[in-house]
Amino acid sequence: MGRARRARRIAATAAYGGGVGAAGIGALGLIGFAVLKLEAQLARRVVGQPFDGSPDDNAVYGAGLGEPVQLVVLGDSSAAGMGADSAHQTVGAIVANGVSAFMGRPVRLTNVAVVGAESSGLEVQLANALEEVPHPDIALIMIGANDVTHRIDKAVAVRHLEETVRSLRAAGAEVVVGTCPDLGTIEPVAQPLRLLARRWSRDLAAAQTVAVVEAGGRTVSLGDLLGPEFAERPHELFSADRFHPSPAGYARAAAALLPSVCAALGLWGAADDHRVPDARRGEGVSPVAVAAVQAVRDPGTEVSATAVEGESRGPRGRWAVLLRRRRTPVSDRSELDGQTADTGADGSTGTGAVNPTDGAAAAVAAASQPDGMPTMVDGDGGPGDQGHTPEGSAPA
């Protein structure tokens, strides 16, 4: 069964309250299960608990005129910021500073994320958030890793996420979800558990995308966004437990999320609403399950609902548009370490590179020039020459 079909099935099961079993473990024999259980115990022993908790990043960020923009953050340890050294290094704080810089208004961050949370914990987090902020402007959710490591049924996990997104939308909030990261990139996890963790986390991420878009939100694929760089510079991008990101790692994730948060708030203007997908960048319009699979393969991509010729749904489900808003960062470390800064006519210097540990600056730089808009991808997730474009848009 293809991942697109599995994502549709998981999301459909979640919508109707189904879901039994333990994240695909039933397909393994008893011996295989015992091996995986032992590897999981060894991984937990290696990871350990080097942190007492996460920084308290609840505060007002930025400055400017007007009432503060209300940003709420829900999710697990990645949303809480475990591994960050200070409150300003969490994803929520970096995104809050970025939104403030673009809007010229302060942003009040209310972070109710809980270290170790599964998707089932979102209900309590939502109640806490709405008690503090009855009508948030924007909500950011990062969830899924613990559902995979605790072998929670994917349909059950997705149902909790979908219900949370619908409740936030009913409260008037725009919703951006950073989908489940690719746990196959985590160094302490051995094979074959690492291979299975990759499949489980990617399947969950694709199903999350389908459910979130159906519920009125948008997703950003985190996937193995940090995988290649983590492999090259693990001591810089991993925190002390070799599992959670370091401040530089959180800055990388925030840089992927910030452009979509700004788009959800309408900061890119009317042009963004009529942006045509750019097939050269792999952008396009397709059934949401197909877009979800493509997003899993390419971390940093956004998936949101759209319409084709005035119709929100086609023969294969809801139409969705896949966008690559994130700018490609400097990938070669030598470009930062060995490059000589150019001197301008006014005596100023600069290479255009951003310090990867400067979270807010890196995220704002990545989002400051949103790339231009989406063409159709074919039913297999590959770029197509012809096809539908979003309602009100012209072909590229």
Report on this model:
Residues 325-396 are annotated as: Disordered. This is Lysophospholipase L1-like esterase. One of its GO terms (molecular function) is phosphatidylcholine lysophospholipase activity. The chain crosses the membrane at residues 12-36. Residues 73-252 form the SGNH hydrolase-type esterase domain. With 396 residues, the chain is an alpha/beta fold. The chain has a domain at 3-18 and 53-305: Rossmann fold, CATH 3.40.50. 40% of the residues lie in helices and 12% in strands. It is built from 15 helices and 12 strands. The strands form 2 sheets. Strands 1, 2, 3, 4, 5, 6, 7, 8, 9 and 10 form a 10-stranded mixed β-sheet that branches. It has a two-stranded antiparallel ribbon with strand order 11-12. Helix 1 (3-15) crosses helix 7, helix 1 crosses helix 8 and helix 4 (91-103) crosses helix 15. It starts with a helix and ends in a 29-residue tail after the last helix.
Content-based structural category: alpha/beta
Shape summary = globular
What is the CATH C level class of the domain at 3-18 and 53-305, in words?
Alpha Beta
Number of helices: 15
Number of strands: 12
Task: Report the CATH topology name of the domain at 3-18 and 53-305.
Answer: Rossmann fold
Radius of gyration: 20 Å
CATH-level-2 architecture of the domain at 3-18 and 53-305: 3-Layer(aba) Sandwich
- Averaged pLDDT, please? 76
End-to-end Cα distance: 33 Å
* Helical fraction: 40-55%
Strand content: 5-15%
Largest sheet: 10 strands, mixed
Order of helices and strands: HHEEHHEHEHHEHEHHHHEHEEEHEEH
Stretches where pLDDT is under 50 for at least 5 consecutive residues are: 19-33, 338-357, 372-396
CATH H level of the domain at 3-18 and 53-305: which superfamily?
A: SGNH hydrolase
Region (Disordered): 325-396
Transmembrane segments: 12-36
Biased composition (Low complexity): 337-353
Domain SGNH hydrolase-type esterase: 73-252
